[in-house]
Design goal:
This protein has about 350 residues and is an alpha/beta fold. It contains 11 helices and 14 strands. The chain has 2 domains: about 60 residues, DNA polymerase, domain 1 (Orthogonal Bundle); about 280 residues, Alpha-Beta Barrel (TIM Barrel), CATH 3.20.20.70. The two termini are about 30 Å apart.
Length: about 350
């Protein structure tokens, strides 16, 4: 049986054609799938009983099961462990921000980038996620919000487990699908994609005509240190990554954000601050400082608040647009990979 969850409208229409389903009916089915949370053809009440029975014999609506849910004490962050039909589990996070509900989605089960500070990569990568499996993360949370208080998902960051540009085709298909009015109708400008710096795909993304925001995981201001923290830097050197980010900003007129995890005694010194200022010079870009959320297995520590404040102040005083990420969900281990790792260990 064919899973129709995750099909764009044209693909869905083609799958339904043998059943003489007209185009407008296919659109109604899409709305049932993506906007109303229906997982049973029998509930699609604007279709005839005969058609519902036929569809139930030929297709399935496969959505993940919520295996675990953790809510932060302040009620602002919820982390979900979702399990797909083959037993693959991934994490998704809901962050209730002052400007609306934001979600962080995963694009791979696990990750093989090998970054020294990240929990997602501890067990390697199981597999890529399909367009439908990525979309399902957003739809599951959107359904929950609608039932809880009538709200919806407003913005999205593609910053969960995995490197999205290593799953390029499915991620692009997902971006176009979630934008459609028959799914969540999410504006491209409300979407941010984060990459560790897959240079060829960064150039390709700049040509797609999608005005999404690009975020680059930088985490070090020079080649040697970045290669220690992020092995992918040996394949795509920092200067090439920055050049690709500059090109993205030039093509899309969208400000690029550089993510910089602050690690005590590793990348938070005056020398690194000076190098980072030099790297940012002349760019349409900002720096988002992220005090590390310690992962037990990594033995890397967070700098003191005074050190974080100093680093932020140094960048700001040298005309770098800088912010410090507001911590959310530390009491539920909301950093990428931590909940999934516990699940795998069990």
């Amino acid at each position: 049986m064919i899973n129709i969850f995750g099909m764009p409208l044209a693909e869905l229409q083609a799958a339904l054609k043998p059943y003489n389903v007209p185009g407008f009916r296919a659109k109604q089915i899409a709305q049932w799938l993506y906007q109303k949370g229906v997982v049973d053809f029998g509930a699609m009440t604007n279709l005839s009983k005969d058609l519902r029975a036929q569809l139930a014999q030929a297709f399935v609506i496969a959505r993940p099961q919520v295996k675990a849910r953790l809510d932060s004490q302040d009620g602002k962050t919820t982390k979900f462990l979702l399990e797909y039909a083959d037993g693959t589990a991934i994490e998704t996070v809901l962050m209730r921000q002052p400007y609306g509900n934001s979600i962080c989605v995963s694009t791979q089960a696990g990750c093989n980038m090998g970054c020294a500070f990240c929990a997602s990569t501890l067990h390697g990568m199981a597999r890529d996620l399909t367009c439908g499996e990525i979309l399902a993360q957003a739809v599951v949370i959107n359904d929950m919000l609608r039932e809880e208080n009538g709200s919806k998902v407003d913005t999205m960051v593609i910053m969960g487990s995995g490197e999205p540009l290593m799953n390029y085709a499915e991620v692009l298909k997902f971006l176009r699908l979630i934008h459609e009015p028959y799914t969540l109708g999410m504006g491209y400008r409300n979407i941010t994609l984060s990459t560790s710096g897959i240079v060829p795909r960064m150039y390709q993304l700049a040509e797609e005509g999608l005005p999404i925001s690009l975020s680059v995981s930088l985490h070090a201001p020079n080649q040697e240190l970045r290669s220690e923290l992020m092995p992918i830097n040996r394949k795509y050197p920092i200067q090439d990554v920055v050049a690709a980010a500059r090109n993205y900003a030039d093509k899309t007129k969208r400000r690029v954000t550089y993510e910089y995890i602050l690690i005590d005694g590793v990348n938070d010194g005056e020398e690194q601050a000076k190098e980072l200022v030099a790297l940012m010079r002349g760019q349409l870009a900002s720096v988002n400082l992220i005090p590390i959320n310690p992962v037990v297995e990594r033995n890397l520590l967070r700098p003191s608040k005074a050190r974080i404040d100093w680093f932020e102040g140094y960048l700001a005083s040298h005309h770098v647009n800088v912010t410090v990420r507001r911590e959310m969900g530390t009491d539920i281990q909301a950093a990428c990979g931590q909940l999934r790792n516990k699940h795998l260990e069990k």
